[in-house]
Every structure is written in structure tokens, then in C-alpha cells.
Amino acid sequence: MLVSLHVKNLALIDETEVVFGEGLNILSGETGAGKSIIIGSVNLALGAKADKELIRTGAEYALVELVFQIRDESVKKKLADMELFAEDDGLLIIQRRIQPARSVCKVNGETVTAKQVKELAELLIDIHGQHEHQSLLHKKKHLEILDDYSYGKIHKIKEELRKDYKEYEILNKELKESALDEEARKREMALAEFEAQEIADAVLRPGEDEELEKQYRKMINGKKIAAALSAAYGCLNSEDGQGAAGQVERALREIKGVAAYDEEIGTLQAMLEDIDSMLNDLNHSFTKNMEEMELDEFAFKQTEERLNLLNHLKSKYGKSIEEVISYGENIQEKAERLSDYENYRLRLENKVEEKHKKVLEDCGRLSKLRVKSGTELAQQMKSALVDLNFLEVQFEIQVRPNAEAPHADGYDEVEFMISTNPGEAIRPLGMVASGGELSRIMLALKTVLAKKDQTDTLIFDEIDAGISGKTAWKVSEKLGILGGEHQVICITHLPQIAAMADSHFLIEKNAVKDKTTTTIREIKEEESIKELARLLGSEEITQSALSNAKELKELAAKTKQS
After folding, report:
1. CA–CA separation, 136 vs 56, rounded Å?
2. Structure pTM?
3. What pLDDT, in 10s, does the model give residues 215-258?
4. For 359, left (φ over 0), alpha (ψ -120 to 50), or beta?
């Protein structure tokens, strides 16, 4: 659940923090007080596009911070899969700092990308904006909703379908690209055979180019290396005995003469003997390397020619020997295909046909599951709509298969059908429902899907648009029920909905030191009743208005108890 929201220097907000509770959290306030800024700040923290104009005038940056409490172990596992981790007590802090040049997102102090935050948001919160219900006018959305509802039944077959469809597309593309006339086939076959033979004749070995480059570098710098080795050897071994090897040998003779008189001198003797032995080994290595540095012109020429060949092949067929070898294998296969072109095309056509049949089979299985789930969802939706004051409602979900147009999501077209009045024929949702009805239909969907949804927190931004009276009370009851299963945060201007609050927050706009500031604070029973009286439309908060508000609050409490 969303524990708290902290906002600083954002639009009209100087700095404010709100701690949300479980159940139904209601946010209300005067028109223009800044209710949209509160939901907007949540969206910003969760990766929405940030505009530098949102930074409060005179401030260097804006800051939004969300604190979530993660309880569900499956959500924690999904977070771990994203390499994001909650604290030991389950807290997860999402912070976004917006600056004129750029913005930075962090999760528990670790910098993350906006894409990661958006993926994270899908696990933690579901935000229903003021105009989201308009998406119900698009049939594509109907398919998404049905598949969300059916996820447990269909996700395996959808994964299988996507895999098969991708393979079908690859095969079909290969079939189209392989269509050649006889002259083109001969040209391509001749080129493929030449390239395959050129690579085969080179008898390539992985890593050979790197080895040869090391050898070539050593050969071409042989004189320089030999001179350095000779100079170093001279430092150790000079003819007058003043070199390091001669001096160590002389020191060893001196020590040997007195080692018998003192045990510690014997230790020094052993150390000198080790040094003398190391110097002898070193001299041997110097001599061996100097001999090897004598340039073998034939070997040098062979190495140079081989390197030139390898570099030539890499310039044509790949950046490394491994890539050239891989290209050679592929081009050899192509040459063989082109030499047996008719049989190759026939085999490929058979593969495309078989994969197409498999895709249609997957689509058919998926379609049957959608039809079954659609019937279940339609029944639950009808019940939820009746609860929302659609008294004579018919609701159907039509699943229309089209085997001529399969794709990665199946071949179904899904459409919600509704009749809201007795005697009216059932028709597409977009042709019947008004704005207020669409809002209630979306709430019904959210309610039905919430039973299957693992998302703890649901946010509704003015779900009450276009409704009033008895319908408003029905919506209020539905939000109250939803608040029993999830944390619900709802912005409203209707007293019927505000009365159902488990926690009530007031959003206010005030002028402070010649600046307009929006704040949000939790209000308790007495102040909540005053706010309800204001929402009831009373110009002045009279005793009568307060009595009506109190009565509404009591009715809401009884409704929640029942």
C-alpha cells in the first residue's frame, strides 16, 4: 500500500506530506485548490513526463517521494527479478527529483531509469485518471480488459502463440526473400560458392589472428628487443667483473669464508646463494631470448602474408575470425540451398504452412478460453452495474474470431455490448453509454478485476464525473466495498462519496507571503462533517447543513458495517 506522499517545490505546492491509511482515503477541496496536482505528483514519481515548468517559481528543483509498504511475497519476488529490493521491513521509497536540465529517479537510494519505475508502478498501483473511462470507447481496450481478467487461464497459451507466430513470421519472411528467377539464382549461387570456397581454402582457426599479431609485433620489433636484452645482460655481466652477477658471486665467496663462525652469517650465505642461482637463471633466459630475436626472414614473410589474408577475410566477412567462420558456414548452407533450389523452396513452403496451422490452432484454443471467460466477466459486470444503479441493464462480451487475420495476440476481435434501458436492443458500448455511464462502467470493471488483481493501491481521480443523487450513493457503496479489499485513494466533489471515507484529507489553496500555496492535511470527524456540509452545496455552513452532513456520515457508517 501507499504509506505516504511527500511533495516539495512542485507547481503551487511549497512542501507538504500526507500519510495515507488503509481502506478508502478521500481527498476533497474547493474547485481549483490543486487536487489534480496531488494525483499529478504521484504520476510524476512513477515515471510520467516531467516539465521544468512544474518547478515552483524561485526553486532550483522539485521533489516527489512515495513510500510503499510491500507485504505480498510474490510482489517482492517480482521486484527482485527487476533487481529492486524493499527494505527488511518491506518499505520501498520511490523518489524523483526534477531539475531544469534533467530529472533523476531513485528507488531506495539507487538510481533507476524511468522505464524501470514505470514497470515498478504496474506492480504497486493502479491509477484511474479523469478521462481513462474514455478508453472504453475503443475495442482494442476491450480485448486488453478481457485478457487481464482471464490471465490465469490464458497466459501460457498466449506465450505459446507469440512464440509460434514469431517463428511463422521468420519463416514467411525467408520464403518471400528467397523467391528468385533462374538467372538470379545462378548469380547468387556462383557468388555463394566462391565466398564459401575462399573461406574454406583459408583453413581458419579461432583466435589465430590474435596469436599472429603478437608474433608479428615481436618480429617487427626484434632489433629493439634484442638491444634492450643485450644492455640488460651487460649490466649483470661485465668483463671486469663489476656487473651484478660478478659482485654477487664475489660477495658469496667472502661470506662463505666466515659462515662457520656464526649461524646468522649462515643465513646470509643461503640468501646470497638463492640470489646467485636466480641471476644464473636470468642470464640463461636473456641468452635464450637474444638468440630467438635473430630475425628469420622466411618466417617473418609467412607471418605477414598470413596476417594479410586474415585481415582481408575479416574486411569482407566479419570483424573476427569467429565471425568469418560463421559466415562461411552460413554461405555454404546458402550455396547448397541454391543448388537444390526447388526442393529447398518446397521444404520451406511446407514449414510455413505447418507453422501457420499451428498458429491458427493456438488462436482457436485462445479464442475458446476468451469466450468462456467473456461469459463469466459479463455476468459479474451485469451484477456490478446493477449495484451502481443500472437497474435494467444487459451486458455481453462478444468474441469474434477471424481466421483470416491471425496475429501474436490471437485472431479475436472483442467488443463490449450493453443495453441500459428496457426494450432497447443490445448495442456496442461506444454507441450507447454517456460520459457518466462510462465512468460507472469503468468503476464496475475495476471492482470486478480487483478481486483478481494483486495491486494493493487503487487511485480514482474524480470517478464521480457526471453522476449525482441515488447513483452517487451507489458509487459510494461500491468504493466502500472496494476499500475493504484494497487501499483506495479517491478525489471527489460529491458528499455521498466523501461520507464513506475511512480517512478524509482536505486540499486547500492559501496565499502566504504573496505566494499561492496548495496544502493537504487529514481532517477528523468534526472538520470532515463541515467539509461534507460544504460539498452539500450550502453557501453558509448552517446548523441545518451540518445536521444533513452528520446524518450522511452516520448513514455511511451503517452501510459500511452492513
Report:
1. 36
2. 0.65
3. 888 777 766 777 777 777 777 777 666 777 777 777 888 788 78
4. alpha
